[in-house]
Amino acid sequence: MTEHIDQTAPHDAGEHHDDGHHDVNYAKIYVALLVLLVISILGPELGITWVTLITAFGIALVKATMVINNFMHLKWEKNFIKWALVVSLLFVALFFFGVAPDVMKHDGLRWVNDAAIASVERGIEPPHGEEGEHAAEDGEGEDHAEEGDDTTVEGEGEGATETVAAAFSAPDAYSATCATCHGPNGGGDGPGAAALDPQPASFATTEFWDEVTRESMVNVIQNGGAAEGLSAAMPAWGALYSDDEIQQIVDYVETFQP
Amino acid sequence: MQKPIATTRSASGIPTGRLAIWWLLASEIVIFGGLLACYLLFRLGHPEWADAAAVTNTAIGATNTFVLLTSSFTAVLAHQAAERGDGKKAARFLVFTIIGACLFLGIKSYEWWYEISHGYTITSNGFWSFYYTAAGLHAAHVIAGAIAMGFVAKDAAQGKELQRVELVGIYWHFVDVVWIFLFPLLYIAK
User: Fold this and answer.
1) Which of A12, B105, B123, B183 has the fewest C-beta atoms under 10 angstroms from its C-beta?
2) Which CATH number fits the domain that encloses residue A146?
């Protein structure tokens, strides 16, 4: 049996394990890992952001390092193994930082990610119906309850579509999708406006209302500015809002009329 | 008994099997790293995901972390026994590790069953997509590791191929390390 091991596992006998058979006190490492686990669970309970970050992610790093060094024996491994792993990690970092500006930022000098802004505005709704309410009670608390109050006006518990329809509100839709360029009060002065040429329409001018009809506004919102020979920078929203919802948005835009 | 060349030769100064495991893990770093990097990007860009993350059950996540840490401990004890030439003891510790893997999967199944029955599914929204994809990919690795350990333990019990105990252990610790990061990402950070 011993011969067999010597043959198939020369490292066990030899040169890479100069320090004997890794005289690690595994039980001690294990207990330390469990203590760290307890800290990483209790720390975030305090609800202080930096304590959460340190106890959750700082300790995860420490735990991972302990496992990698003492259980995987990486610290006794040849250097090129470490380099192979580090290079893999560097590629992950390259990917992260290469993509980060596109995903983490929702607007830039000449672009706005309307869908991302809209989804931040919308928030994450708990599942609808009985189960959803039940789960909300179980855990995540007041945030959802508050949101629920202003979004689910009617049709509660009648299935997903009805609830979503009931949750539509023209002012919310306007601030999520239109205000970025047309401005919160329709003045054509949203944060995205500066980069646009031609400038987005201002609903607070009489010139605007002289030029448009209700039909042309619906058409532009539904099919984009190009559909009426206007700026192609105005996106089409027909896929996001139903005909009825677009009518409500036009109603709301009319309130900006001087 | 005739050994395949790859098992006996070592051009790098590292036994070929162990070298292969490290290369496997280097590629795993990119697979899990890419997935977790995507999760981080979206999580940081979408503060509203905190609401969904708050639904995940920290107690279950913590229990599973404990189970995996313990199974890593038994895996390294198996390696220690194998180094000392005690195949039977190594096999016994590997069996403990497999039990840990099954316990982990059992707890995970209950957790998923509970969440899915409450309407939180992979199609609910971005957070839950990542949640099921990341934890699912990880669980697939747990299953693969448990099966591999079964084969290694069978041989080790007869005193054969004891070097494999270390190799399967290195893989298992990696699976543990991935969970060490998944736990705070999916359960703690609210």
Assistant:
1) B123
2) 1.10.760
User: Alpha-carbon distance A44 to A52, whole Å?
Assistant: 4
* Residues A208, A92 within the same domain: no
- Give chain B's domain count: 1
Domain region containing B88 = 14-188
Domain assignment of residue B179, yes or no = yes
Question: Considering CB atoms only, which of A12, A95, A106 is closest to B45?
Answer: A106
Whole-number pLDDT of residue B164: 92
Q: What range does the domain containing A91 cover?
A: 2-104
- The CA distance from B98 to the nearest CA of chain A, in Å, is 17
Nearest alpha-carbon partner for B111 in B176, B48, B64: B64
Asked if the bond preceding A198 is cis, omega within 30° of 0, the reply is yes
Token digits for A247? 């009518």
Provide the chain A residues 99-158 that lie in CB contact (below 8 A) with chain B: 99-100, 103-106, 116, 119-120, 122-124, 126-129, 131-132, 134-135, 138-141, 143-144
From A104, A128, A152, the end of a domain falls on A104
Express each pLDDT in A124-146 by its tens digit.
777 764 444 444 444 443 344 43
Do A88 and B33 form a contact (C-beta atoms < 8 A)? yes
A122 contacts B48? CB cut-off 8 A: yes
- A109 inside domain: no
> A70 with A127, same domain?
no
The reply to whether residue A135 touches residue B40, judged by beta carbons under 8 angstroms, is: no
pLDDT 10s digits, B103-143: 999 999 999 999 999 889 898 888 999 999 999 999 999 99
pLDDT band at B2; cut points 50, 70, 90? low
The residue of B118, B166, B170, B178 whose CB has the most chain A CBs within 10 angstroms, and thus the best one to mutate to test that interface, is B118
**Mean pLDDT value across residues A183-205:** 84
